[in-house]
Every structure is written in C-alpha cells, then in structure tokens.
Design goal:
transmembrane, 314 residues, mainly alpha, Rhopdopsin 7-helix transmembrane proteins, three-stranded mixed beta sheet, GPCR_Rhodpsn
C-alpha cells in the first residue's frame, strides 16, 4: 500500500552526517563558489568595458559567464548555509525554485554553447560572410532565444514535477533538488506529466549535440585543408576549449539527470553533481581566458586602468 502522507519539507542529504565534516564541506564549497563568482565577474567586466573585445564570440562568452554565475549561485549558497548550520532542510517552494533555476540555467548554457559552435563554424568555414551572418542583431536574437527557451524549459520541468503532491520519504540523496531524486518521492499521478518533459529535454539536448558535432566536423575538414601549420594550430586552439567545456558539462548533466535514483547512494555517486554545478563556472574562465590572447590583453588593460580610475574617483 502506498504511503499517502503528504510531504511539506525535504531533507538534502549532503555529503556527511558528521558536523565537523559538514563544516569543512561548507567552507570548501564556499571557497569554490567565491572563485567561480569572482573569475566570471572579472570576465564580464573586461568584456563590457573593453571596446577592443567586442567580437560575437566574446558576446556569447559573456553570456556563458553570466549563466555560470547564475548556475553556481542556485545550490551552493544553500548548501553552504545548511552545512555551517547543520540543518539540511529545504521547503517545498525552495526546492521548486531550485529546480526551476537549475534547469533553466543548465538549458541556457547548452543553447549558448551551441551558438558558440555555430559562431566558430561561420568564422572558419564561411569567413567572407562572417560579418554579415554574425551581425549584432543575429547575436542578440540567438542569445535572446536561448534565454527564452531555457526559461520555458525550466517552467515546463518544474510545473510537471510539482503538479501534484509528494508522498513517502522526505530525503533527497543530493545537495540540491534535482529531477531523479524528486521522482523517487513523487506520487504516481505526477509521473504522467514529468516523463514527457524529460523526453523533450533529452531531445533538445541531443539536438544541440548533433548541431555542435555537425559544426565541428565541418570545422575539422576546413582546418585540415589549410596549408599553414600555424593557422591550423590557431584554429584548433580556438575551438578546442569550447569542445572541452561542452563535453564536461553534457557528460555530467546526463549523469545527474538520467541516472536512476537510489535511497542512499555513496558519496562518490554525488561527484557528478559537484562537477556539474561547480566545475563549469570555474573551468570557463580558465580555459577561455588563459588560452586567449585578446582576453589576457584586455585583462591587463583593465588592471592598468584601475589606478587611474581610483585617482579620478577620489
């Protein structure tokens, strides 16, 4: 017989039941959160203030940094607060908000990464038409559609998951609310709405993967026809970071959202969730900045202009 006791609050299991380890985890995640926030804010500042870095690729990179800040800011502050206060509870509205924002920002990152691959395809395969195709209006349209679709995607997921009551266990074996864990405690009626949403999400993700692979197949074939070895290396160094970021994000996202839920998974089973939420916001600035001469020069110009700014401000 199904337990029909309605759930009004949930417990996020986290990584340890030991108070000292909880505190250490909270401090560690807080440090990673600060690194991700500061590095992405620095990129956004450089790309916004430096007039010499205004190419479409950097416009999409600024969107990626904004999505990275948004994505990491959803679960980590709550997890840090719970770890430091040793209170793992989260309300149903709070869980719904986490799910809405996490799915929206995750979908947005996939769509923007797809736009970045298209930008690379046009730049390398159609260089003579690049400025006409990737003009300001086209970039704004692609970014706007990405954010809008991501928001609709998040609303669809959240509405389906919270369309009915929860019953049974109140424990979520994760440090944030995600779909597999919530499916475990959903009443049977809600599954009829959730599974179509999951199917649409998988289809959209696979479509983005196909578009990106299509872009890189054409990029690879074009680059291999370039006679200059130096030009080939430059083209590969531009595209490789994006492919690494996309691969890490997609692999961990599929591991988080498509794995079958269990009652008490080991700590190692939650590592994909950590990589999925924390690594991309930290990885994006490192890969896109350290391997990009324009970004390094823009950062240098920004740092050199800070003394003059403070003098004029005072």
């Amino acid at each position: 017989m199904v337990n029909t006791t309605l759930v009004t609050s949930l417990l996020l299991l986290g990584f340890s039941e030991d108070p000292e380890l909880q505190t250490l985890c909270g401090i560690f995640f807080l440090l990673m959160y600060l690194v991700g926030i500061i590095s992405n804010l620095l990129i956004i500042t450089v790309l916004t203030l430096d007039p010499q870095i205004q190419a479409p690729m950097y416009f999409f990179l600024k969107n990626l940094s904004l999505l990275g800040i948004s994505l990491v800011s959803v679960p980590i502050p709550k997890f840090t607060f719970n770890s430091l206060t040793h209170n793992n509870s989260i309300s149903i509205p709070g869980c719904a908000l986490q799910l809405l924002l996490m799915t929206s920002f995750s979908a947005g990152e996939i769509f923007i990464l797809t736009a970045v691959s298209y930008d690379g395809y046009v730049a390398i395969c159609c260089p003579l038409h690049y400025e006409a195709i990737m003009n300001g209006d086209a970039c704004m349209l692609m970014a706007g559609v990405s954010w809008a679709l991501a928001g609709l995607f998040g609303v669809m997921y959240t509405t389906g998951m919270f369309s009915g009551p929860f019953c049974g266990s109140t424990v979520i074996p994760e440090f944030f609310c995600n779909v597999p864990s919530l499916l475990k405690i959903s009443c049977s009626d809600t599954l009829l709405v959730v599974y179509p949403s999951l199917g649409i999400g998988v289809c959209l993700s696979l479509s983005c993967c196909v578009c990106i692979m299509f872009s890189y197949v054409h990029i690879l074939s074009t680059v291999l026809r370039i006679p200059s070895r130096k030009s080939q290396c430059k083209a590969f160094s531009t595209c490789l970071p994006h492919l690494v970021v996309f691969s890490v994000f997609m692999v961990t996202a599929f591991m988080v959202y498509l794995r079958s839920p269990s009652n008490t998974p080991p700590v190692i089973d939650r590592l994909p969730s950590v990589i999925y939420t924390v690594l991309p916001p930290i990885l994006n600035p490192v890969i896109y900045t350290l391997r990009n001469g324009d970004m390094k020069r823009g950062l240098r110009r920004l740092l050199l202009s800070l003394p003059d700014y403070w003098v004029s401000f005072i």
